[in-house]
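Mods, move this if it's the wrong board.
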Amino acid sequence: MARLVSLIVLTVLIVFLGITFFQVIAPFLLPLFLAGVVALLCQPMFRYFLTRTNDKTHWAAGLTTAAILAIIFVPLATGTVIATAELYAFAQERLEPAQWKPAYGKFRERFDADEIIDSVYDRFSPPPTDKDQLDEWKARRARFHEQVETNIRANTKAALDRVAERTMGFAASTFGIVGRIVSGIVGGLMFIIGLFYFLADGPVLLAATRELIPVNQDYQQQLLHRFNKVIRAVVLATFAAALGQGIATAAVLYFFVGHFFLLSIVCTLTAMIPLIGTWLVWAPVAIWLAADGHWGSALFVTAYGTIFIGTLDNIIRTYVLHSDAKLHPLLAFVSVLGGLQAMGLWGIFVGPTVASCLHALVKIFNTELKAFSEEKFANIKAKSASDMMHNTIPPDMAGEEKTPPPAPPEQPESKPHKKDPGKRRRKR
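Not the wrong board. Structure tokens:
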């Protein structure tokens, strides 16, 4: 009874302190989860540095952490600078007189700009009745047309320059977001420290955690193996889908606007943003083509982006999850979309992971239930067989083995009778 009371008190304390501890670490769960995923994915790099440092674990963990941060920031900074330079070049190219004049002429024809400008000018400066003043008035109106064209060109250039500057600003804000995750005040430090210790002391932490979990070690190993495979598959599926969408979109838009490298980077980055995707790139191009009078090209870009690019993400992601994580295509598709709707960006990673681990847990539970059932029914079967054998024994033979009945007393040997000669004589 005393032990039962002690277990109840310990259970209550563990639950209370566990809830309190969860509230304490809740703000850092996302950086720690990200650090664990990165540490899991970068094990080959960690083993490489471990070999180079003669099995100095903490040195290898520090070098791996620094290399990961460099791998994240250097390509992002380089790609942003190149994309911004191409955007500036694109703006200057479109504003050259050789391309600006035909484009502006099409704009005037398409939207009847001359009539609109003339009506505006006539409203504020009516034509004079004198012929001498009329010629001067027409000259002023022609100069007004030129001034409008100059203003449109200047405003277009300023708008494109602002777009390029905002691209750098967006990159800076992106760096700020990544910095808050990677090297920010608390979350970034938690990510870096968690990544370092997951690399350096990961096996020790894992072994200590497994000792505290009252589950068979083989089952824990199965869950860890499953988690490892799913995380790798989800990360690979995310980047493969974004890269595939980016290249496929840029390959088509290149024939209309050029600058394949810029489009590839922009489309790949937008493809990784949930609920936005590459339509943020191809939709303005389709609108520009329609405004320029190329209705067939605009419809083609719209249909291509909606039908092909829109489904390419689900096809690539589902295929990778099915082939690597061994998830059924329907389960992979539902877990990705459901996780995205429930948890946002991180739902792309958490959804398939939870689905796969749940599937593994159900299989483990089924195995344990079968073993328990076989053991239980084996005991029942053995008891039933024993009872049947006991019931088939006759009552006089049941129970303890009885001593055999005593042998009957031996009869004394009878001596042969001698014939009486007297009787023989009397008979005669």
